[in-house]
Design a protein that fits this description.
The protein is 48% helix and 15% strand. With 442 residues, it is α/β, with parallel strands linked by helices. The longest helix has 30 residues. The structure holds guanosine-5'-diphosphate and magnesium ion (MG).
Length: 442
């Protein structure tokens, strides 16, 4: 599809469009069949459907024409070039959405959600992005900001017109408002952990000594033969990754090299990377081979994963078992951890593994995902954090008995930070940076 926006959108299209009627005279939100011809007026470039939409009820709030061409690169590109020759200009990244923002149809948080909708990796991530696009987050921020604006206005009135005898806002009222606002903002920040996980995904690494079946599990969870599986220990020397979905959370699954000591140079480098993976991953699937006794290499891995979110996976349960769940439970480093028996080869137990791992990742997810707005964008999170800090300073000033004007200064700072989320007083530089993340045509 080729999309034109702006006052010239319809006239420019009309110069090349040959249909039953000129687009200049058709009604808004109507679709018309015709040909797009070259600039000389003869050669038909493509047979198209042109949708005409008049301002202001359009994506950009401007006149918009959308030309549906035949699929494939050439048809659309030829039509695009012909339109550019007639005076249209190529859009910058995200320019349509930027115009929608500048023309006041959506605020900045909504504009940013467009990228998240396009990039959503799972249906849950899409739900969160759609909620933000339809203004869920914006409404919350507006509401919090509105109350605050009101308080600041009342405080400023008594500062600016002391002789007018405007009743002073009591310090108790100010404190109450600050506390209430802080706690609402903190709740938003709490949800952002899950929101970010949904937007960016989380990394889950499979770790264990060589030959326990890590690559087999990696392939099984990805549903693809990505990693080479072999009975020779030390086959996987590099770190492999692939995207999958666990309980609606996009997961970057990592298959590290087996961890063991005293091996050749290349494998050693692989092992070094595997250790780095342990540090970085959000959660670990620590795998041992249940068909043979635990070794000191297994111990090393388990110890290396201390302090991380871990599921202990007893693999190869299709074979006669040498280690059971009960044995593992008694292990000093496994206390309190989920221990599962699976067979990566037959697929037994993998469903349960997914749901346990999902529970670990989503920790607290179910209680809040459905009703609350989840912040997922770092820029918003930083702004809300900044607002909370400003409120904390204001409360400190209040507690220490500072005069009202100092407290108001902190509150104004908090308001300003909140305004950043929805794009109040935002500079062109910041807009450029935000919209540069968009693809062209959005
Ligand atoms: N019986 C059985 N064999 C398995 C299972 N998982 C992996 N294997 C075998 O164990 C060997 C090592 O597997 P691999 O995935 O390469 O282990 P890695 O070194 O930990 O990546 C291969 O021969 C696999 O076929 C399992 O659940 N049951
Ligand atoms: Mg492997």
């Amino acid at each position: 599809m080729v999309r034109l926006s702006g006052r010239e959108a319809i006239p420019i299209t009309d110069r090349l469009f040959r249909g039953r009627r000129q687009l200049a005279v058709v009604g808004t939100h109507t679709v018309h069949h015709g040909l797009i011809v070259g600039g000389d007026g003869n050669a038909a470039l493509d047979e198209v459907l042109a949708s005409v939409m008049h301002a202001p009820h359009t994506y950009t709030c401007e006149d918009v024409v959308e030309i549906s061409c035949h699929g494939g690169r050439m048809a659309a590109r030829t039509v695009l070039e012909a339109l550019v020759q007639q005076g249209a200009r190529l859009a910058g990244p995200g320019e349509f959405t930027r115009r929608a923002f500048l023309n006041g149809r959506i605020d900045l948080a909504q504009a940013e959600a467009v990228v998240d909708v396009v990039r959503a990796r799972t249906s849950r991530a899409l739900t969160v992005a759609m909620r933000q696009l339809s203004g869920g987050l914006s409404r919350q921020v507006q509401e919090i900001r509105g109350r605050f604006l009101d308080l600041v206005a009342r405080m400023e009135a008594t500062l600016d017109f002391p002789e007018e005898e405007i009743p002073q806002v009591s310090r108790e009222v100010v404190r109450g408002e600050i506390e209430q606002t802080s706690s609402r903002l903190r709740r938003l920040l709490e949800g952002s952990r899950i929101g970010t996980a949904l937007r960016e995904g989380v990394s889950v690494a499979i770790v264990g000594k060589p030959n326990v079946g890590k690559s087999t599990l990696f392939n099984a969870l990805l549903g693809a033969d990505r990693a080479i599986v072999s009975p020779d220990p030390g086959t996987t020397r590099d770190v492999l990754e692939g995207w999958t979905e666990i309980e609606g959370i996009p997961v970057r699954l990592i298959d590290g090299a087996g961890i063991r000591s005293g091996t050749d140079g290349i494998e050693r480098e692989g092992i070094r990377r595997a250790r780095a993976v342990i540090d970085e991953a959000s959660a670990l699937l620590v795998m041992v081979d249940a068909s043979s006794a635990l070794t000191s290499e297994d111990e090393d891995v388990i110890v290396a994963c201390r302090g991380k979110q871990v599921v202990v996976v007893l693999n190869k349960c299709d074979l006669p078992q040498a280690i059971s769940r009960t044995d593992m439970r008694g292990h000093p480093s496994c206390g309190g951890r989920a221990i599962l028996e699976v067979s990566s080869l037959t697929g037994a137990g993998l469903g349960e593994l997914k749901s346990v791992a999902g529970g670990l990742l989503a920790d607290g997810w179910r209680s809040c995902v459905d009703e609350e707005v989840l912040m997922c964008n770092m820029r918003h999170i930083e702004a809300v954090r900044g607002a909370v800090q400003a409120l904390e300073r204001a409360r400190g000033a209040l507690d220490d008995g500072y005069p009202d004007d100092l407290i108001v200064a902190d509150l104004v700072e908090g308001l300003h930070r909140l305004g950043e989320v929805i794009g109040e007083d935002i500079s062109d530089d910041i807009l450029d940076r935000i919209f540069s993340e968009f693809c062209i045509g959005k």
